[in-house]
């Protein structure tokens, strides 16, 4: 079954999370990609989609549909995928990079991987490379901070020279990533503050942050200068960001826009319906 094309357009109506407003989700399915219509109208939020959530689609299918919907790029790809993005006028909004910067024993691998990803991004003019804290594994949080700062300082100047940002991701350790160290905003803020580079920032994953701490909008407003990238996802379940879950994304997106953020918000949820139906609905919800 070719899920990258579309045979019909259906309006799916649902009450908004606050009971005010209606979202129309276009069913983008099987037969005529040419009929896919642009969803983005306002464009205050630069939107993207995480590749791994759309494995049922080829990268070409996701790029073709995403470009027509109004996406600016695709998230979490490797340099081998960059030529495909260029075909559709898209960017890699977050490139896969290194991990475990909290563990000195893993620094050589993590730093080399981040360095290579920065180099590839610079060649294509792409903006961001991901970094991960790594798990605690007996490492105290304060020691993990010191280790992460030491590792990220080794790539910060190179990132500045290449005009690429390294974004360390906040994940939850309660449900999905047991033992992950960067599971609270204070940890990431301390790391980025100590590194002191405008090109080392936080990837603020709203789904993960909601599980661990909540208080999403206040956190965005307080730490806007340290956040370089956002991920979406519905909680509970990491599925659609519609009325089936507890977060109200229109207000969150307005808060992001009001900070003057010019980076990317990538949808990183696992669709339970036709994937392009869910993606189009998410893009429309976030087009505030």
Task: Report on the architecture of this protein.
- This protein has 288 residues and is α/β, with parallel strands linked by helices.
- It has nine helices and ten strands.
- The protein has one domain: TIM Barrel (Alpha-Beta Barrel), CATH 3.20.20.150.
- The chain is 36% helix and 16% strand.
- An eight-stranded parallel barrel has the order 3-4-5-6-7-8-9-10, surrounded by six helices. A two-stranded antiparallel sheet has the order 1-2.
- The longest helix is centred in the middle third of the chain and has 22 residues, at 141-162.
- It is globular and about 50 Å long.
Query: Helix-strand pattern, N to C?
Result: EEEHEHEHEHEHEHHEHEH
Shape: globular
Q: Quick one: how many beta strands? A: 10
CATH topology grouping: TIM Barrel
Radius of gyration: 19 Å
CATH class category: Alpha Beta
Count of DSSP helices? Answer: 9
- Tell me the distance between the termini: 34 Å
Uncertain regions spanning at least 5 consecutive residues: 1-32
What is the second-level CATH architecture? Alpha-Beta Barrel
């Amino acid at each position: 079954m070719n899920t990258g094309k579309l045979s019909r357009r259906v309006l799916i109506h649902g009450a908004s999370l606050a009971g005010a407003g209606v979202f129309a989700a276009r069913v983008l399915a099987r037969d005529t990609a040419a009929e896919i219509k642009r969803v983005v109208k306002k464009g205050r939020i630069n939107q993207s989609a995480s590749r791994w959530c759309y494995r049922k689609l080829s990268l070409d299918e996701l790029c073709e549909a995403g470009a027509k919907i109004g996406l600016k790029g695709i998230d979490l790809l490797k340099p081998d995928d960059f030529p495909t993005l260029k075909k559709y006028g898209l960017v890699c909004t977050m490139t896969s990079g290194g991990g475990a910067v909290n563990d000195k024993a893993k620094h050589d691998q993590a730093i080399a991987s981040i360095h290579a990803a920065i180099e590839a991004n610079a060649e294509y003019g792409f903006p961001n490379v991901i970094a991960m804290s790594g798990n605690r594994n007996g490492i105290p949080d304060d020691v993990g901070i010191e280790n992460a700062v030491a590792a990220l300082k080794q790539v910060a100047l190179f990132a500045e020279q290449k005009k690429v940002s390294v974004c360390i991701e906040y994940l939850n350790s309660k449900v999905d990533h047991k033992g992950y160290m960067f599971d609270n905003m204070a940890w990431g803020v301390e790391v980025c503050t100590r590194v002191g580079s405008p090109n080392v920032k936080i990837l603020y994953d709203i789904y993960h942050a909601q599980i661990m701490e909540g208080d999403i909008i206040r956190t965005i407003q307080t730490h806007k200068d340290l956040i370089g990238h956002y991920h979406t996802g519905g909680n509970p379940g990491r599925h659609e960001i519609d009325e089936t879950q507890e977060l109200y994304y229109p207000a969150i997106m307005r808060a992001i826009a009001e900070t003057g953020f010019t980076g990317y918000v990538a949808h990183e949820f696992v669709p339970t319906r036709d994937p392009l139906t869910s993606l189009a609905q998410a893009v429309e919800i976030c087009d505030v």
